[in-house]
Each structure stands twice: as C-alpha cells, then as structure tokens.
Write a structure and sequence with these properties.
143 residues, alpha+beta, ten-stranded antiparallel sheet, 2 helices, 15% helix, globular
Length: 143
C-alpha cells in the first residue's frame, strides 16, 4: 500500500512539473492596439448571473465580464450591461481605464471547473482615446 501511494505521489509530481502554469491555471492573451499582452495570472469568478475573467501582468490588467452560460454576446454602447471588456494599463492609476463600447465576447467552453472563450472590442477612456482589444482566455480555472 505504501509503495502504491508513493508511486502515485511521484507520478502526480512528475505530471505537475511537466505542465506549465498556464496549463494548470489557464491563460488570457490579447492584442491591445497592436501590442501583445499575456497574463502572468488569469482567474475567473462568478458574480451573480455573470462571470468575471481577469488577466494580470506587471501592473496591467484585462477584465472580461460575460453572462454565466455558453454563448456569443454582442456589446453595443457605453452602458453598464454585460458583456464588457475593460483594459487597465496601470492598475495603480485605474482612472485611465478603457471600457468597451462595441464588439463581442464568446464563451465557448464552461464547466464547473474551467472556461474558455474569446473577445474583440473597441474601447474608450475618459480622454476619448480609443483602442482595439482582441484576445482569448483558455482553460481558466473556476473557483
């Protein structure tokens, strides 16, 4: 019995070491006005009837909110509706954030433990600067 347990523990450790962090936790990648963004940390959580997906990297964040069911969702106008994509260039200065006003979010896979999808949006900040956001979130772990 001890040998089986030890073997199982070693096999699991080998599997975990062979996996990259993005395989275990998921990833969020995007192109933001032509610049590549890859999250160091990606997460998701449920907020009522919605999912909030977040990717962070070195003080920069991309947030995606979408209804909590598989589907293709269209954004039109600067309203408080879901779906929404938000780009925060510097999380220390969140007042310069960009909010989507048109585009889409597709939630392609959703289980009790993982989700995947894609998004494309035009976003604007308070200075009326606009940017294009395109990306995907893959295999993100649900709490």
């Amino acid at each position: 019995m001890k040998n089986r347990l030890l073997f199982s523990a070693l096999a699991l450790a080998g599997l975990l070491l062979a996996c990259e962090a993005s395989d275990l936790l998921g990833s969020l990648t995007a192109t933001i006005d032509g610049e590549s963004f890859t999250s160091d940390v990606a997460s998701a959580r449920r907020e009522g009837d919605y999912l909030v997906i977040a990717g962070y990297n070195d003080g920069t964040a991309v947030l995606v909110s979408v209804p909590d069911s598989i589907g293709n969702y269209t954004m039109t106008g600067l309203t408080d509706t879901v779906p929404k994509v938000v780009f925060i260039p510097d999380t220390a200065l969140a007042d310069n954030s960009y909010f989507s006003f048109e585009g889409y979010v597709n939630l392609d896979e959703l289980s009790s433990s993982r989700l995947s999808g894609s998004f494309s949006a035009k976003a604007v900040n308070t200075n009326q600067d606009t940017i294009d956001l395109n990306g995907e979130f893959k295999n993100i772990l649900m709490p």
